[in-house]
Design a protein that fits this description.
Chain lengths: 206, 206
């Protein structure tokens, strides 16, 4: 399989961490997309991914899967190793729920702040800003951090006792928060400690 | 299991259609939430669902699952009948991808237009409007309708040959579009025909 992405960007990192957790990074060919020059918005790339975003997975039959949650679900099912998406219906549902909260309430919220209420990727790419919305999404991200801290006061990982794609999404969300200069409040010690533990995993620290 | 919801609202409809597809509507106790009077934002309800939204599933152990995608995934795994979320890793990934497109690009976009750029549920509940954002999301919904029409020109359902949760989400999105007075353009015949076929399913027409 091939993955079109940009190394170091938050959403591509979700897929790379999932692959590393499964020990499968070397089974994928990565193809860089020149996002800074708008390649992701070209007709050629939109034919692969109508969302005009990275990452995008290309299967061996030439078809494409985009949306990180779909790609990481496919990776989890395709390679051996501990499940990242849950082994039982209840575990799967909890992981899906927490992954969506981390995605919409943290990663996408910080992304909206970055792209709408800061210079973002620069005036050539940020042609559709709505600062009022971006600033509200920064508040949403702050509220989600408080919620996640509360969850992590009671359990080791966002969806329970096991590391999952929900943790990967939230971890990437905090990386995006760094990029956007949105800080984790000092008093959210459970979230900060969880972040340190996740950062030390071989899939990320290596 | 119990489901806290409001009959007739678009997101609750997603869960009710999934249950009907599995022939399991009678296995759930529905508990109405007085959304019009803000019950979903009460501390008591937030203890069940921190998202302060309906629907919310209560399992027999007293724990809760929210986010429609998580609830419908749990329903699909818990009851017999044709799969709504896919039988193979590729099918699951395609359904997850198309479900997210239908959710973010249609249902949530129309919802943002309704709540931010129209009177929505009225001044008591709509205390945080951002009209500029809402109006842009109406455009996003229009673009997604064109994309979905293009997909449905080539296949019977949004994720391929089989009906799935992606179809349920898009169908609920069009119901929300009706509520928000966002029309499907006349020329999108594939989307209109698909809607008629889905509306005739026993899970919806009955």
């Amino acid at each position: 399989m091939k993955i079109y992405d940009v190394e170091g960007f938050p959403n591509p990192a979700r897929v790379r961490i999932a692959l590393a957790e499964k020990g499968a990074l070397d089974q994928v060919e990565f193809i860089p997309v020149d996002v800074m020059n708008g390649e992701h918005r070209s007709a050629e790339f939109r034919a692969k991914n109508p969302d005009a975003a990275v990452p995008c997975l290309e299967l061996d039959d030439g078809s494409h899967i985009s949306q990180c949650t779909a790609i990481t679900e496919y990776i989890d099912a395709s390679f051996d190793g501990p499940s990242l998406t849950g082994d039982t219906p209840v575990a799967r549902a909890r992981i899906t729920m927490m992954n969506l909260r981390a995605e919409n309430g943290l990663l996408n919220a910080v992304s909206a702040y970055f792209h709408h209420a800061t210079p973002g990727l620069g005036p050539t790419l940020e042609t559709d800003q709505c600062a009022e919305w971006g600033n509200r999404q920064k508040e949403v991200a702050g509220e989600m951090m408080v919620y996640l801290d509360d969850v992590l006061a009671k359990q080791d990982y966002l969806a329970g006792d096991a590391f999952s794609v929900a943790d990967i999404t939230a971890f990437a969300g905090l990386a995006f928060a760094d990029l956007a200069k949105v800080e984790i409040p000092e008093n959210l010690s459970h979230l900060r400690n969880w972040r340190s533990r996740v950062a030390a995993r071989p899939s990320i620290a290596a």
